[in-house]
Specification:
92 residues; alpha+beta; two-stranded antiparallel sheet; elongated
Length: 92
């Protein structure tokens, strides 16, 4: 479906072991942004909140406000459910 709607374009066709492989890409910035927004809203219950948080963090970086950027990171980390952190293999 992503191919047919134009979200994905064929970048390269390769062949290995008699099987074809394809490298796909998103064709332009507008499609990448729209695709990422769609994924974000599908994966996150409150995608708009996370988008605002990301924009605020970007503004803090552009303005050189390290403290505001740090607070934003802390907010994002605090929003991760505890079980995700505890059961993640990285913690082991």
């Amino acid at each position: 479906m992503l191919w047919q709607t134009g979200y994905l374009t064929l970048r390269e066709r390769m062949q290995e072991g008699g099987l074809p492989y394809y490298r796909l890409s998103l064709p332009n910035l507008e499609v990448r942004a729209t695709f990422n927004r769609a994924l974000l809203s599908g994966w996150l219950a409150h995608a708009a909140v996370h988008t605002r948080m990301g924009l605020e963090q970007r503004r803090a970086l552009v303005q050189g406000d390290v403290e505001r950027f740090r607070r934003g990171l802390e907010q994002r980390c605090a929003s991760i459910p505890h079980d995700w952190c505890r059961t993640n293999p990285i913690t082991q």
